[in-house]
């Protein structure tokens, strides 16, 4: 994700970057590479997830509030 040098500038119409953000210590290089390989007017699809989801039992916390 941080090194897409195998691809030229403005190569893709769509860049799909799922929840893998959680596994990258520094996102700036990832975003730079996404911007570089994406054609002008292209689409960047990104997924985000709150890491707290893995720390707490969501079902237990919502049923206790009911």
How would you briefly describe this protein structure?
The chain is α+β, with helices and mostly antiparallel strands. It has helices spanning 28-37, 58-65; strands at 12-17, 38-46. The model has no long low-confidence stretch (mean pLDDT 86).
Low-confidence segments? none
Overall average pLDDT: 86
Strand order of the largest sheet: 1-2
Strand residue percentage: 15-25%
What are the secondary-structure elements, in order, as H or E? EHEH
What is Rg?
A: 17 Å
Helix content: 25-40%
The helix count comes to 2
**What is the overall silhouette?**
elongated
- Terminal Cα span: 42 Å
List keywords for this structure.
66 residues, alpha+beta, 2 helices, 2 strands
Give a structural overview:
β1, α1 (28-37) and β2 (38-46) form a beta-alpha-beta unit. The N and C termini lie far apart (42 Å). This protein is an alpha+beta fold and 66 residues long. A two-stranded parallel sheet has the order 1-2. The mean pLDDT is 86. It has helices at residues 28-37, 58-65; strands spanning 12-17, 38-46. Helices cover 27% and strands 23% of the residues.
Q: Would you spell out the secondary-structure blueprint of this structure?
A:
Blueprint (H helix, E strand, L loop, with lengths): L11 E6 L10 H10 E9 L11 H8 L1
Parallel strand pairs: 1-2
């Amino acid at each position: 994700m941080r090194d897409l040098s195998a691809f030229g500038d403005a190569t893709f119409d769509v860049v799909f970057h799922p929840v893998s953000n959680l596994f990258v210590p520094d996102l700036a290089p990832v975003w730079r590479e996404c911007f570089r390989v994406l054609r002008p007017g292209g689409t960047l699809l990104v997924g985000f997830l709150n890491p707290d989801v893995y720390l707490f039992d969501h079902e237990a916390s919502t049923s206790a509030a009911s």
